[in-house]
Amino acid sequence: MPNGRYKFQLKAMGTQISGKMWEANEAEPAAYQVLATAPWATGRGIGFYTYLTNSAVLETLRVSVP
User: Fold this and answer.
1) How far is it, in rounded angstroms, from Cα 22 to Cα 31?
2) Which end of the chain is more exposed for a tag (fewer CB within 10 A), N or C?
């Protein structure tokens, strides 16, 4: 959404990656929206990139690697 404000949470455990993103003024979703298996073990290579978006703001980024 143009001019939107978002929060993002990522959990990485071994090769299992879980993520969720929501609008900052909304409640955090209980369930993760993305579940994936990475081709590498966690502990490196986690980042957040945007392409062709200049008006959205990422307010919070939480990454947990237990």
Assistant:
1) 11
2) C
pLDDT at 23 over 80: yes
Share of the chain above pLDDT 90, in %: 17
DSSP string, 3-54: T-EEEEEEEEETTEEEEEEEETTSPPPSS-SEEEE-SS-SSS------SS-S
Q: What confidence score (pLDDT) does residue 10 get?
A: 84
Strand order in the sheet with 16-23: 34-37, 16-23, 5-13, 57-64
Which domain covers residue 52, as residue numbers? 5-64
